[in-house]
């Protein structure tokens, strides 16, 4: 069995309230540290701005506001906050004017992990609001463009590029850029894709998730990349709105429609009451079953660890033992250590 790949979630993990990364998410510094520690790749979020820049940033809320992780560079005051209505796709601003905020955990380093997490959980909305009102900039670092990432790291990393937003032409822009860096390895993934129409003969037609695995999405960002000219592998991201999955047959049907090579699911799918539609497996057996089904159908499985809670070492270990092809964790050091120990024990 191949060694499980470690694809750092937004680099060294998420840095918003309730998370523990000590580097800003989706930042060059975060990717540098992840590479130094030994990850094989990084997951990064990419929007196509109104200026047609491929910005590496994760928006806030459904409208993808800039306000959570970025500040506007200002000649007089140094930095200004963004309003909730100022979104990544519509705001007329360049990457070079988008300053990165300090990570939430860095701003609370004088308190223990348990203490800051307890305060955050007691009032999540207030925690987010307080963070967005701060003006602390991360060592003058800016939101990078995708090209800046490629220029610095080249083929040293595998890139899981998650397409965000509502502009279907983003895929073509990514292809044009990747074409100039033929040595790099890329997976293009997204939550924003539309499944084929569900057959009226489906035995699971009463399940909403069977019809629309990710609910209503604003645009289909992966369809333009079917049979793309560079042969870049496509990853279908699941669990946009809920933690369960459609039936195995439906997953395979969607993968075939998009020519996907990767199925990417949330790490906690096996904790749902009915993890997979039409599957009697429950608990961790669900994950083992999913690995087996994907592998027998020529697909690879990646599990991503959510931002809503810190990674649990036991969860990371269970995923490695289940034999997933890749994990996308927030706690890079713990994940790498678990994989190393797993490989040592097998030898």
TrEMBL record:
Highest taxon in the source lineage: Eukaryota
Transmembrane segments: none
GO MF term list: phosphoric diester hydrolase activity
Residues making up the signal peptide according to the UniProt record: none
Protein name: Glycerophosphoryl diester phosphodiesterase, putative
Gene3D superfamilies hit by this protein: Phosphatidylinositol (PI) phosphodiesterase
Occurrences of domain GP-PDE (ranges): 9-174
InterPro entries reported in the protein's UniProt record: GP_PDE_dom, PLC-like_Pdiesterase_TIM-brl
GO aspect biological process, one term: lipid metabolic process
